[in-house]
C-alpha cells in the first residue's frame, strides 16, 4: 500500500510514546499510558501486517483492526486533554489521530 502512510503511522506512534514519557507518574496516568501505548503501537503493527496480508480479506481485517486501535488511541488522548494532562504536543497528537482514523477508515471502506 502506501509507504508514506506507514512512515506517518510510525512517526505518530513514536510521538505518542515520547509524549507519554513526559507525563508525571500517578496511578491514573500509569493506567492510561499503558492503554495508549498498547493501542498506538497496535495501529502500526496491524498496518504493517496488512501490507503482507495473505489475502484481500486478511488485508481488510488488519486495516479494520488498525482503525479500531486508532479510535482507541484518539479516545485516550482526548481523556488526557479532558483531565488537563497537556503539553504542547497533545493537540497535534489528537489532530493526527483524527487524520489517521479518516485515512484508515477510507482504506477500510474502499477495500470492501
Question: How would you characterize the overall build of this protein?
Answer:
This protein is an all-alpha fold and 112 residues long. It has a single domain, classed as de novo design (two linked rop proteins). It is 82% helix and 0% strand. It is built from four helices and no strands. The chain has helices at residues 3-21, 27-51, 56-82, 90-110. Helix 1 packs antiparallel against helix 2, helix 1 (3-21) packs antiparallel against helix 4 (90-110) and helix 2 (27-51) packs antiparallel against helix 3 (56-82). The protein is elongated and about 45 Å long. The chain starts with a helix and ends with a helix.
